[in-house]
Amino acid sequence: MSAIEPPVERIWWKQPLDRVEGTWIVIAFVWCIVMFVMMPYWHIYGKQNLSNEAYRTTAEAYLKKATESAEKTTVRTETDLKIPVVHPAPGGDAYLVARLWQWWPMLELEEGKTYRIHLASMDFLHGFSLQPENINIQVHPGYEHIVTVTPTRAGTYSIICNEYCGINHHTMASKLYVVK
Length: 180
Ligand code: CUA
Description:
The protein is α+β, with helices and mostly antiparallel strands. The protein has helices at 19-45, 59-73, and strands at 51-56, 74-78, 83-86, 93-99, 102-104, 106-110, 115-121, 126-131, 135-139, 143-149, 155-161, 173-179.
């Protein structure tokens, strides 16, 4: 028998199944089922996968919502660009705009409180990456992504873009504050 030569019996699928072959098919099938069940199981009990939703939107509609929210909840501004730092109501919505090459505004959240963080891109694909936590979400243009999070540790976190989005991709960084 050879892997290069054509099979001696052309109609190979009518050959009886070898014991070893059958065993591997059963093992592979059982493993597929385990993996399939683990996906929803780990989402619910593993507390690692984020609960996220996505809705269709447009850059204009989203920017309007994010701007209105920022106008109501800004507590201060930072950097020479006067980026607003917003402190949304605990239990409420926080809006983040991704665009070339900026995250806008900065968020200040309270430890132990749950927020719905909205993310949308105004132009191309960006990636929301929260450091040092291992949270990564692709931010697609045309969609409003909503992630429900409860920060557990106060501190200053970094947001970086982890999808290449052009010449200044490496400057697309921001901060997220979690206060007690
Ligand atoms: Cu935005 Cu890379």
